[in-house]
């Protein structure tokens, strides 16, 4: 149904009154969008848009075409709804295991987004370290895993991977808070709060410290990333998480997030996966597609800022 994509493009141009504005909202280039419209005008032998110095306006032919566009899009939405009814997606259960780092912000946001479209789909979420997550998958206790740095196993079928850096959660008054990146050596002698040893991030830190001959002063360790954040904000400690679990805008007041220099810690993969050879329940398959699109968008390079 690729033709629907262009119909949505034309609808957006009509709504915004601007090819450039529509292109920004649709994440396409204005020149490509304008070219598609010009090709369509040539095919129909009719001008659809009156191009002005500041935006565009629909011609009489454009008004007729946009009415057709919106009828087609409405029919497509109704058809999708009927297909969802036939496939039983009005109801369903998604069973997923996720790493601690995803449990506070990322996964709840994705569940909320998915349920706006499928409000009767429910979720059974297990928060587990990377090794336990693979075990839950292999024993059919969950349909999907979204875990950081899972162990290799032939039974795991990765659906999407997203490279992740470790970031430091730093009290705002710490000397390193003004730097763009930090080194592990910066925190020798600083009270540190670390996740438990079963987590992939903790194992990466321990390996890096051993290679560098460094030693942290571990003031606390916990299996709750929310508690670790609180120790940074309230007790002046430093902690570490993967970047998707420590978005700066989600941090409590008083916490600064800085990436750890790649010379100390290379990136590792966040993996969305299922059991190899297993056909997922429909709700699980649809949620996997939803997560895959989100992770793919997160992996895309940021667009350069306009001058």
Automatic annotation (TrEMBL):
Single GO term (MF): DNA binding
Coiled coil: none
Gene3D superfamilies on file: 3.40.190.290, Winged helix-like DNA-binding domain superfamily/Winged helix DNA-binding domain
Keyword Zinc: no
Highest taxon above the source species: Bacteria
Pfam families: HTH_1, LysR_substrate
Residue span(s) of domain HTH lysR-type: 1-59
Keyword DNA-binding found: yes
Family annotation (InterPro entries): HTH-type_LysR_regulators, LysR_HTH_N, LysR_subst-bd, WH-like_DNA-bd_sf, WH_DNA-bd_sf
Entry GO terms, CC: cytosol
Keyword list, A-Z: DNA-binding, Transcription, Transcription regulation
Family as reported in the entry's similarity comment: Belongs to the LysR transcriptional regulatory family.
Protein name per its UniProtKB record: LysR family transcriptional regulator
